């Protein structure tokens, strides 16, 4: 049951990473083009063109905080539970990134030019999944998971230990 909780924790952080980076990416597009987007990704105003420094900074800081949240347990707890959360984070992030590329490819025009931002969560998924912040955190997560598993393998620790039924444990004693 704990494994399921840690898996859901990793999946939730993954979805949060993609959504936050997607919202920041849509708002950055608006800053660079002089448009004001609402949360449904509709243009609701026009303003002067700006460099989206605060959006990029917010995306970087929140991505790093989520990376720390998902990988902190690997450094502090020797059990297999944090490994489950990182694995689910990686799997769900890969699925969301793949989904973002399917969304992007599905709306291209014949000339290969993609215009506009998809409405609502689809736009967040498309922009967040193809965001460099999301992809960088994904690569770092894969790297730290690999490093942790290799270190545990070298120390001859079990990575995910199977639980024996209560009767089998009593018979062993």
From TrEMBL:
UniProt keyword list: Membrane, Transmembrane, Transmembrane helix
Identification of the protein by name: Integral membrane protein
Top-rank taxon, per record: Bacteria
Taxonomy of the source species: Bacteria, Bacillati, Actinomycetota, Actinomycetes, Micrococcales
Protein's organism: Jonesiaceae bacterium BS-20
Transmembrane segments: 49-69, 81-103, 131-150
